[in-house]
Amino acid sequence: MEKNLKMVVVAMIVLIALVPVGLIASGTAFGEWGTDELEQAIGYVPAGLKSLSTVWQAPLPDYALPGQGDTILSQAPGYYISAIIGVAMAVAVMYLIAKVLIKK
Amino acid sequence: MHIPDGYLGPLTYLSMFVVMIPIWLYAGHRVQKDLRSKQVPYLALGAAFSFVIMMFNVPIPGGSTGHAVGSALVGIILGPWAAIVTTSVALVIQCFVFGDGGVTAIGANCFNMGVVIPVIAYVTYRLISGKTELTSKRRLVAAAIAGYLSLTVAAGVAGFEMGIQPLLEHDANSLPLYMPYGLNVTVPAMLGEHIFFFSFVEAIITALGFAYIAKNNQSIFLDKPEEKTKTPVAATAK
Rounded to whole angstroms, how far apart are CA atoms A85 and B4? Predict the structure, then answer.
């Protein structure tokens, strides 16, 4: 591998290794609440929101493995697996698109 | 800033797809025209970078969280059109595989994070850096300000899209059907969280990433200042 490219790949691997740091934040971002959280806050779930909210069932929701615990330690494996799967998919999909587009 | 399914009604989310389709097509065209095969691995890494940087959730007082997006950096290095494509790839994977951001909101989320951020970041960076050297302090500051400003504006746009829902979509009793909070809540909340916290994170990673690439790998920058004009001037001087 070209030396310059290697430098960037190494930086990416370091980022993946550090990814459990992102688990320290346990709250929900503004406007990304689940229907249960919304019901708690305003007392009801808007009808349209309720029906749209189940339109897609992701295979690895919230970057987590099914049945993991609440501690950072128990969430870290699922988070690592999610980071590796996501990075691998992003690299593969973007590489394919770029290969198709760029010919020179 | 990943708007989930249900927070935007069809008027908004369909409009955002209508806005995004020509942008995606033109961005693809510009990637084809402006970039070279040498940059292909960096496009792939750019998409991966945005994906992974968004996993670094930052807690803030009050219990909310947020994160940087990384597309300011990609926009500065590979250009805004390339960053639109790389960020969209990351967002679509986050949506379908990890349920982060709604399927119906893909148009809106790709606009907010994939278009607003790199375009504003790139323009800001170019305006501030002028004709300075790639490794100059001024460019580092330009990158930081570009990251800060672009994430802040994107947050405001996302807040606006959510906040107009009670006006646009409600039932006969004027009960909101989608995002229940109006502009008076969503815009200050989104802007405030980013102005005081998350935009600083984007500023820092943009500046750090910029410094790292400017030091190690200048050849992948889409625009390299001065390089083209310097050589002939130096040659004629001798």
Answer: 21
b/e code B88-113 from CB counts within 10 Å (16+ = b) = bbbbbbbbbbbbbbbbbbbbbbbbbb
Rounded Cα–Cα distance for residues A6 and A32 (Å): 36
Q: What predicted TM-score, i.e. pTM, was given to this entire model?
A: 0.94
* Distance between first and last Cα of chain B: 55
Question: Which residue is closest to A88 within chain B, CA to CA?
Answer: B48
User: A8 to chain B: which residues are within 8 Å by CB?
Assistant: 42, 45, 213, 216-217
Of B42, B46, B57, the C-alpha closest to B206 is: B46
- All domains of chain B in start order, with CATH: 10-224 (1.10.1760.20)
pLDDT at B229: 46
B2 neighbors A61 (Cβ within 8 angstroms): no
Of B87, B223, B41, the closest CA to residue A6 belongs to B41
CB of A36 within 8 Å of any CB in chain B? Answer: no
Q: What is the pLDDT of residues B37-88, one digit of tens each?
A: 999 999 999 999 999 999 999 999 999 999 999 999 999 999 999 999 999 9
Q: At residue B28, what is the residue type? A: G
Q: Please, which residues 200-229 of chain B have a Cβ atom closer than 8 Å to chain A?
A: 212-213, 216-217, 219-220
Cα separation, B192 vs B174, in Å, equals 28
The rounded Cα B194 to chain-centroid distance in angstroms is 13
CA B91 distance to own-chain centroid: 11
Phi/psi for B170 (5° steps) reads -145, 160
